[in-house]
Specification:
homodimer, mainly beta, globular, two-stranded antiparallel sheet, about 110 residues, four-stranded mixed sheet
Chain lengths: ~110, ~110
């Protein structure tokens, strides 16, 4: 596991994390991590985030049961964004959709 | 083209935009848009962003020549993140990589 000290968390101590389905390549969601959420994700192999609305650590799937098993985690060239490739055990979106990006702006 | 008034821009007037290669599914980068960048993207069919460091609108590729032709734009369920599916005309990353996510944190 690589050092994460060089990552650039923002002024709220957060870094955006894109989640992509490791099997299909579909982009599933964007959420935010603080350092502790990232540490838990890397050590447990399941996605943890920081909920900005609830102001608390959030084990994805803790209520829905739909966790995301991590396959790989990548940082971008600026070290201020993460990409998680993982395998969700159920629909990622709270609406029941497979992805949170189900509403196209360019469809008409 | 759909109304964009319902989108939730953050306190800086920005919304994160994930860029995905429409052909390969590869996640290429994350950048930020203000409302004008989104309007220009939707009207021109090429990706525009807002540069937080330079504090200016940024036509992706204006210096490198590597523009991103837009195929579709999606909003997420919270209306606070965008997903752009597009076709880059060259490497998206300023390092010359195809994607900004070339550095794996979980590779050891």
């Amino acid at each position: 596991m690589r050092q994460i000290e060089s990552l650039k968390f923002n002024e709220q101590g957060l870094i955006p994390a894109i989640v992509q389905d490791a099997n299909t390549g579909e982009v599933l969601m964007l959420a935010y991590m603080n350092e502790e959420a990232l540490r838990r994700t890397l050590s447990s192999g399941e996605a943890w985030f920081y909920s900005r609305s609830r102001k608390t650590l959030w084990h994805k799937g803790e209520t829905s049961g739909n966790i995301i098993k991590i396959v790989s985690v990548w940082q971008d060239c600026d070290q201020d964004t993460l990409l998680l490739q993982g395998k969700p055990t159920g629909p990622v979106c709270h609406t029941g959709h497979e992805t949170c990006f189900f509403d196209q702006l360019t469809d008409r």
